[in-house]
Amino acid sequence: MDQPIVTLSNVTVTYGTNRALRDVSAGFYEGAIGLLGPNGAGKSTMLKALLGFVKPDQGEMRVFGLNVAEKPLEIRARLGYMPETDGHIPGMNAVTFVAYCGQLAGLPFSDAMQRAHEVLYYVGLGEARYRNVETYSTGMKQRIKLAQALVHDPELLFLDEPTNGMDPKGREEMLDLIRDLAHNKHVNLILSSHLLPDVEYTCNRVVVMDKATVVAQGPIGELKGPSGRVFELRVKGDLLAFLDVLHANGLETHNTDDDVLRVFVPADAAPRVGATTDQQAIFALAAKEGIQVRHLRASLPTLEDVFAKAVGEE
Amino acid sequence: MPIHDQSYRHYEGHRAKPGQAWTVIAEAGIRNMIRKRAFLALLLFAWLPFVIRAVQIYLASNWPQASLLAPTAQTFREFMDQQSVFVFFVTIYVGAGLIANDRRANALQIYLSKPLMRSEYIAGKLAILVAFLLLVTFVPGILLLLIQIAFAGSFEFIRKNVFLFPAITLASLVQVLLASFTMLALSSLSKSARYVAILYAGVLFFTKAMFGALMLIMGSTRIAWVSFSDNLTQVVDVIFRLKPRYEVPWMVSLLVIVALMVVSASILERRVRGVEVIT
C-alpha cells in the first residue's frame, strides 16, 4: 500500500480546443479504486491516456513504475481494459473472441482457449459462450467485455462504467463480480463510474474528478471520516433564506433526490445559539427564521456527501 | 477454506513477448475467410486461368502440332494481366471489411488495449489481404513456370528467360501491395464494408474512364498516369521487359504507385487509433 501503482503528474489532455484533463495529479494505490465524477469530468479520458490512446500535452504518467510514453506495450500486457462503449471482434462467438483476446495479449492458443472458457463461466456467460457476440443483449455485452479484459489475468483492470445499461439484477451481479475480483482474487482495479453506490460497494479508495481536474482523493472511510456530523432535514417555509442562515452559521448543505436536505456540521464547529446539541442548534435556527422542521434525523456520512462536497454541489 | 477455486484463477503460464500479435491477427483473419464457401469458390475460380495455361504448356510440350501454343515471356505477362480481374474481386471480398468491420464493432479499442502497436494491427490486417492476393498472383505464376520446366523436360526455356522468376515475384508484389494498401486505407475510412467496396470499385473505374476520355480528347496516352490500374500495367510491362503500352514514362507510373502507397499508409496512421477524436 506504500507506493501507488498508477501515478499522474500534472497531466493535461486536450481534444481540439476542449481541455479534457487539466493539470491532473493523482495516485492510484493497490486494491479497488473508484474513479468518480459526473459525465464529462474526464474519467474516461484519464483511462485512455493511461492506455496510451491519447497523448497528453504535458505531464507524466506511470503505471507499475513504467512511463506510459516509453513502455506502453509492457504496461498494456499487464492491464485489462473494459471499455465504456460496446466493442467486440465481428463474426466471432464469445469463446473464440475471448480466446483471441488472450492470444493478442500473448497467451498460447491452448491456454487462451482454456482461460476463455474459465472466464466466460466466471462472468456468467458459460451457457452462451458459443453464441455470436453480436446477438448478445446489453447486459451480456457488458459481461463479455469484462471477460476479454480478464482473460490474460491482468494485474490491473480498468473498468469504464461497467454497469451501464444493465438491469438491476445484472448490475448487482456485475458489482459482485467486481467486488470478488478486488477483494478475493486480488486483482487491482480502477472503476470509473458516475454511480456512487457502485463505487461505494466495490472500492476502498476514490479519486473524485470534476471539470477535468481531480477534486478529492483518498480512502473512502477517511474522506467520509472525521469531518463532523450529518443530519437529514426536511423543512417547510422559505427554504432559500433558511439555507443562507445555515451557511452563515458555518453549516454545509446539499440537496438529495428525495427533497431532503443533508446538513453537515463540521467537526470543529461548536454548538450554536446556546444549544447543547447540533439538533437543538438547527431547531433554534429554524425557529428564529420561522421555519417549520418536518424531519430531522442524524445520519451517517456517505460517499455521496464526499462527492457533493468535492464537486461543490448545492 | 476451499481446496480448489473453480471460479477465477490466476495465470502462470507462458506469455509471448510483445511484437508477435500481428501473426495472431493474420491467422485469425485467414481462418475466418477460408471458412466462407463463397470465398473458396472465388479462389477456385481464380485458379481456372492457371489450369488453362497449364494445359496449354502441356500440349505445346508434348504435341508438335500444338507448337504455336508454346509459351513465351509474353505468355506469363498475359497470365498476370488475366489475374488482375481476380485481384480486384479478392481485394474487394477480403479487404473491404478488414478495418471497416472493426470500426463498426468498436473493435479498435479492444485491439489497442492489448500489448500491440498500431503498426502491428495494420501489419496483421495487411498480411491477410497480401496472403490471399499472392495466392492468386505469385503462387500460380511461379507454379506455371515450374510446370513449364517439368513438361518441357529441359531448362532451355528458363535459361533463356531467367528473368521471369524475379519478374513474376516483383510484378506480383507491386500489384498486391498497391491493392492491399489502398484497400486497407479505404477500409479505415468507413464503418461499412459495402460502402468501401463501392468506393474502391468506383475509384478504379472512374480513373480508368477518365483516362479513356482524356485519351480521346488529347489523342495521346501520356495521361495514363491518372488511371489507377494503367499505372500498374505500365510498370508491370517494364518488369517483364516488354515495351510499355502507354506513352507515359514508366517512372511516372511508378511514382504514382509509390505515392498512392504513401498516402494510404498516412491515412492508416491517422485512422487506426484507440480513440476517435472529433473536433
Mean pLDDT of chain A: 89
Give the radius of gyration of chain A: 23 Å
| Structure class of chain A | alpha/beta
Kindly give the count of domains of chain A: 2
**Tally of DSSP helical segments of chain B:** 12
Compose a concise summary of this entry:
The complex is a heterodimer of chains A (314) and B (279). With 314 residues, chain A is an alpha/beta fold.
Description:
The complex is a heterodimer of chains A (314) and B (279). Chain A has 314 residues and is α/β, with parallel strands linked by helices. Chain A is 36% helix and 28% strand. Chain A has eleven helices and 14 strands. In chain A, a hairpin with a 2-residue loop joins strand 1 (6-15) and strand 2 (18-28). By secondary structure, chain B is mainly α. In chain B, 72% of the residues lie in helices and 0% in strands. Chain B is globular, with a radius of gyration of 23 Å.
Please give the structural blueprint.
The complex is a heterodimer of chains A (314) and B (279).
Chain A: E1 6-15, E2 18-28, E3 32-36, H1 43-51, E4 58-63, E5 66-67, H2 72-77, E6 79-82, H3 94-104, H4 109-122, H5 138-150, E7 156-160, H6 168-183, E8 188-193, H7 196-202, E9 205-210, E10 213-219, H8 220-224, E11 228-236, H9 239-248, E12 252-255, E13 261-266, H10 278-289, E14 292-299, H11 303-311
Parallel strand pairs in A: 3-8, 3-9, 6-7, 7-8
Antiparallel strand pairs in A: 1-2, 1-4, 4-5, 9-10, 11-13, 11-14, 12-13
Chain B: H1 21-34, H2 37-46, H3 48-62, H4 73-104, H5 107-112, H6 118-136, H7 138-152, H8 156-160, H9 164-187, H10 193-218, H11 228-239, H12 250-271
Name the descriptors:
A: about 325 residues, alpha/beta, Rossmann fold, Alpha-Beta Plaits, 6-stranded mixed sheet, 4-stranded antiparallel sheet, 11 helices, elongated, B: globular
